[in-house]
Amino acid sequence: MSSVGHVEDAALPASQLIYAARTTVSALHRDPRALWPEHARKLYDHLVALYGGDDPLPTLAAAWIARQRSANTQKSYARGFRVFEEFAREHGAYPLRVTFPLADTFRMHLETAPTWVRVKGGPRGEMIRTGPPYSDASRANALSASSSFFAYLDVVSDTPLKNPFDAVRRPVIDPDYSPTPGYTEQEWTKLLVTARDHHRIRAYRKRAYALLLMLYTCCLRVDSLLTAKVEHLGDDQGHHVIKVKVKGGSWKNKPIPPIAWAALQDYLDGRTTGWLFCTASGGQLDEPAVWHLTDSLAKRAGLTPRGPHGVKGDAVTHALAKPDARPDKIQRWADHKDSRTTQRYNRRKELLDDSPGYALGADLAGALTHDPS
């Protein structure tokens, strides 16, 4: 049985949409797919290998990914969609024809299905489904991605389409909880010293030190920093600044504190073009490399390993803990549109340091110590 490649079996009420997806790009003088971002192209190639180039699904799915504002969302949604597509295909369903019963079954499937993990000692890229079930966040992402895809189909179609994921329950995610362990300011100092003086590869010390300082003191997302170029550095009103694309797709000048600027200039060593943080050959440094960097430095410093996405949370938390902290200024510095997003970092700290249980426990300890019985 072949559940892929049969377009006639996958006809949607929005037949004109399907026709357009398959034929429009071939009717143009220049193929617009050449302009698709990385994760859209990768998803397209993956789906073409399964469904063939004449099927509308690869073009529709990749165009939907290309429409997302940030590279991080593109990557996340592409990953979630591949989980959904695999599930539909294994159940003999064509993704464009999925209805609510199967969409809801996908929700239940995610709660128990083992995840893909690399085969230890096997060929590079070999994977096997023996990992733990999907986390709440991963399940929420896969369901959100699938719903977003069908919402996109409704937008581009001339015929209204019912989103089969509209009524599917999503995992409840507590916005005030993060599994990422936070570092204290003292631990951050230890991590930075390790990057500057004790990185295993001496040639990478300046880059590692400057990268961590830029993430922390400029309160940047890692994807924003890695897409910046040396040409984005400049001066504005007496401040050294970097022009970065923040969440939502807008550009913003971020001031660079002196300590970070000095480390950055030491690392650049006069270089005036190219990716701000690059590989030895001048290519763009990618997120997996930064994840490996932060993990290896943490282990070397004797700290809990963690990825780069927790850096911004640490920066906001530490800034909010200062005696003269101005939440409104910190909100703008963190590029948060909603003040509640900024305050979540503050509440995370309060849930630990300011727990009333400490005072109750201290009173009990004193009472028990002086209990004559």
Write structural notes for this entry.
By secondary structure, the chain is mainly alpha-helical. It is 53% helix and 8% strand. The chain has helices at 15-27, 38-51, 56-67, 71-90, 100-112, 136-156, 185-197, 205-217, 222-226, 258-268, 287-301, 310-320, 327-333, 339-353, 356-369; strands spanning 114-118, 127-133, 233-236, 239-245, 251-255. The strands form two sheets. It has a three-stranded antiparallel sheet with strand order 3-4-5, with no helix packed on it. A two-stranded antiparallel ribbon has the order 1-2. Strand 4 (239-245) and strand 5 form a beta hairpin. Helix 4 (71-90) crosses helix 6.
Rounded to an integer, what's the Rg over CA atoms?
25 Å
Mass-distribution shape:
globular
Range of helix content: 40-55%
Q: Span between N and C termini?
A: 79 Å
Structural class based on helices, strands and sheet pairing: mainly alpha
Strand numbers in spatial order across the main sheet: 3-4-5
